Structure formats: structure tokens, C-alpha cells
């Protein structure tokens, strides 16, 4: 497995194949000599943890909304994977597998991809199981403040690695520090650009009509995506049969740690993109279908998200804690009991 910091160039590389650092491996030291809290154990109950120091003056970026973090804590270096979640299901009778699994197991090649379609309730049950396995640690979901504090780092970065996304697209190749909808789009254009896509949502103004994917979807030089979704007309890539087939496999995730240049200052991977992450914090959502509802905050963006949604300061996104979604997974927080 490649542990050297570097950006990923996406042409035909991902496609559901497990790439990059494995979830049980230690992360590289953050680039640029960023401060790191006191050394944490490499493995605790099967989870690789990064130490994050207390931040008694923490406030959410761009707001006066302060939420002091009084004590040091640990955060999973990686999002919880399908393989790790299967261990939990095998150990705890009566638990249910995510809906995109088949016959009790995850899709082929996705052992080291983040588990999706797990509710906040499911994630908390996983944490309780980890705690019950012993070792003197208590596992839980991070608060929203703990999540943002760890993602931004002491220099308050816009992205875990710095203030610029640094994404480029040229000659059909996207170079990126993280997995977001530009990565999905670049891959699909390279492999399926000439393939006919059919609008399959009955609310679409073009329901039943077909055209080449390259006529629907495009990626700009800076990695921005056009033709992903149009909420007014129910058109765009998301409302085609090609996207439906993708969703049936659990979405376009990448193996955790596959973007080592995107590591956070404290050594956590995929805090931008790949999968939104549950937090234990309840908020009134200001974005999306959940706007105005009290939900659990989710942070970090996902394979489905725009680059803007993957910034460390992007707030207001939430999901019902009892729901399960194809863009939402989780990572654990931990403290010594």
C-alpha cells in the first residue's frame, strides 16, 4: 500500500477498486510539519486513532458560535470500513447489514471503503460494541465541534491540507486531493462518455429520453462539475440509469486513505469527501431537503458532493439520526475510560 503523500490523478483508476492505505495502517506524518498532539496508540480495538489536543477557544469558522473543547480526544484516522462493520455484525446477533450489501456482505472490492447506509443510531451501536470489547477506552461519535477542530487544524485550513483545493482537469484526467463529484464525473466521462444515458425519474422533464453521457456531464479545468443535477427539471447525471446503477453498488467511494495528500493536520484521512460523517450534535439544518428540521449534523462532504460541500467550514448539512443514506458513513471518536 502506498503511504507517501501525493495527489491522485483519476482517469480510469478508481471504479470501485480498493486503492491506497488500508484502514488498519498508520497514517504518514502530516506534510509541512503541522503540530500533532501527543503520540496516540496505533491500534485500539481495531481502530487506528489520531490524538487531537483540547481547544478551549474553539469557535466554528466564520461564526461567533463557540464550542470549547475542554479535553484532549482521539479521532479515527480513517472512516469505518465495510470490513470493520461486518466484524461488528458477525459479533452482535440481530444487527442488520446495510441495504447495498448482498447476502450479508459488502460489494466485491469494497472491503476498505467506508461503510454507508448506516444511521447515526447504528453508528452509535457500533461504538458501544467497540467499547464493550475492553481495553479501557470509550468510543462514541464525535461532536460537530470536535470534527471541525480536527479537520481544520491549528491553522484553520479551508481544506484539511490547506486553503486551496488544488484540483485540476486536463486531457481527461482529474488531479485531486479528495474524492468528490468531480472524481466521479471524470471517471464516468473517461469510461462511459459515449454511452447512452436515459433519464429514468418520472418527474424529469425528459423522462425516457436518452443522449450520450458526454452531452449531459462536463468537468471544468478547476474540477467544477456541470450537468450533475438540476433540481428544477429533474435532469442531469443523477437522474439517469447510469447513476442508478452506480447507487445500487453503494456509490462511488474510494478506499479509505486513498488520497494521502488530503490528510488533516492531526493525521486523519478523508475529512474532505468520500463519505459525509455522522456527528452526535443536533442542529437545525439550513441546507437540502432537511432544511428547518432538527437533525444530526453531518460533515465533510462525500463522493456525491460538490467541492464546496467538502470544505472544513461547510455547515448546515444534516440527516435524521434514524435514517440511512448512500453518502453518509462515520468515524469514531475515543477517550480513555
Write structural notes for this entry.
The chain is an alpha+beta fold. The chain folds into 2 domains: 1-179 and 253-337, paralog of FGE (formylglycine-generating enzyme) (Alpha-Beta Complex), CATH 3.90.1580; 180-247, no CATH class. Helices cover 15% and strands 16% of the residues. It has 5 helices and 15 strands. It has a 4-stranded antiparallel β-sheet. Strands 13-12-11-14 form a 4-stranded mixed β-sheet. A 3-stranded antiparallel β-sheet has the order 1-6-5. A hairpin with a 5-residue loop joins β9 and β10 (225-226). The longest helix is centred in the middle third of the chain and has 13 residues, at 120-132. Residues 1-6 and 10-39 have low confidence and may be disordered.
Shape: globular
CATH topology of the largest domain: paralog of FGE (formylglycine-generating enzyme)
Q: Domain count, please report it.
A: 2
Portion in helices:
10-25%
State the low-pLDDT regions, or none. 1-6, 10-39
Characterize the main sheet: 4 strands, antiparallel
Distance between the termini: 33 Å
Strands, count: 15
Order of helices and strands: EEEHHEHEEHEEEEHEEEEE
- Number of DSSP helical runs: 5
CATH architecture of the largest domain: Alpha-Beta Complex
* Quaternary organization: single chain
Strand order of the largest sheet: 2-3-15-4
**What is the CATH class name of the largest domain?**
Alpha Beta
Please report which band the strand proportion falls in: under 5%, 5-15%, 15-25%, 25-35%, 35-45% or over 45%.
Answer: 15-25%
CATH superfamily of the largest domain: paralog of FGE (formylglycine-generating enzyme)
Mean of all residue-level pLDDT scores: 88
Give the structural class: alpha+beta
Radius of gyration: 19 Å
